[in-house]
Amino acid sequence: MPTSRESTQTLSSDTSAQNSNGSSTVTSFDASSTVYTGPVGGSGDGTVLTGTLDATAIGTDTFAQVSGSASVGDNGTFASFDSTAAAQGGASTTSYSSTTASVSYSGPADAYFSLTQTVNHTVTTQSSSTSTSSASASLAAVNFDPDDDGGCGFDYDPDAGAFDPDTGGGQASHDHFDSDTEIDGNLATFDLTVAAFGDDSYASLLVEAIAIEDTLSSTTAVIILAIE
Predict the structure, then answer these.
(1) pLDDT confidence band for 175 (50 / 70 / 90)
(2) Which residues, other chains included, contact 211 with Cβ-Cβ below 8 Å and sequence gap of 6+?
(3) Radius of gyration of the chain (CA)
(4) Strands, DSSP E only, in the chain?
(5) DSSP state of 186
(6) Domain boundaries, the chain
């Protein structure tokens, strides 16, 4: 059996600059990513995928969004999720943003890949503060069971995005918040698609979204997919 590998990278920086008008700008940035590759074992024939997403922004103008897609089938399990949050405030208003994205897999797989990433960025001046946060989680678990034609049972293009059971490929594109964009108001949104394919299948999606004027945006999602 091939050896499994896991790698984690982190990056962090804090800078302070004095502006020509006498004000100061403080920038904080941190990012981390974890990659896991290799086969995984499992008891029985069942497959379960779970995902949790959260985006929270606190400030005068706020934005929170969770998005992504996931599918579970006999020959493969694929997921791609994103959480994005941003907040802006004035001199007397603190801006805060936080995101999480996680996905887990239980079941056998001949090949398994997972990637999680988080990025946080804050800019503070004497007149304003801006905070942005993004998190992403993706997963692919494949079983190479030959079909009647001698193939692997599906046609999956890793560059095409989330798996589409109707076409064997797919395209998933989730826009990330641009920190240079001005936020106006308070918005909490979600865009999620999940599916389980099999004789005995289960799909559950729970989403909560709330926006409070001049205060808060928050979106949370929990995904559970399973087949026997």
Answers:
(1) very low
(2) 62, 64, 186, 187, 188, 217, 218
(3) 20
(4) 5-18, 24-40, 47-58, 61-72, 76-90, 96-106, 109-124, 128-142, 186-196, 201-212, 216-227
(5) E
(6) 5-11+23-56+66-183
C-alpha closest to that of 161 among 64, 227, 67: 67
**Distance of CA 200 to CAs 72, 170, 178, Å?**
12, 24, 42
pLDDT in tens, 98-156: 999 999 998 888 888 888 888 888 888 888 888 999 999 999 988 776 444 433 444 44
- Tokens standing for 193? 């698609």
Residues 6+ apart with CB under 8 A from 10: 30, 31, 32
| Cα 142 from Cα 57, distance rounded (Å) | 36
* Cα gap 180→64, rounded to integer Å: 16
Note whether 127 and 90 are within 8 A (CB): yes
CB distance 82 to 100 below 8 Å: no
Cα separation, 216 vs 203, whole angstroms: 30
Closest CA to 60 of 91, 96, 88, 85: 88
Map residue 96 onto helix, strand or coil: strand
More confident residue, 103 or 168: 103
**For residues 141 and 105, what is the distance between their CA atoms, to the nearest angstrom?**
8
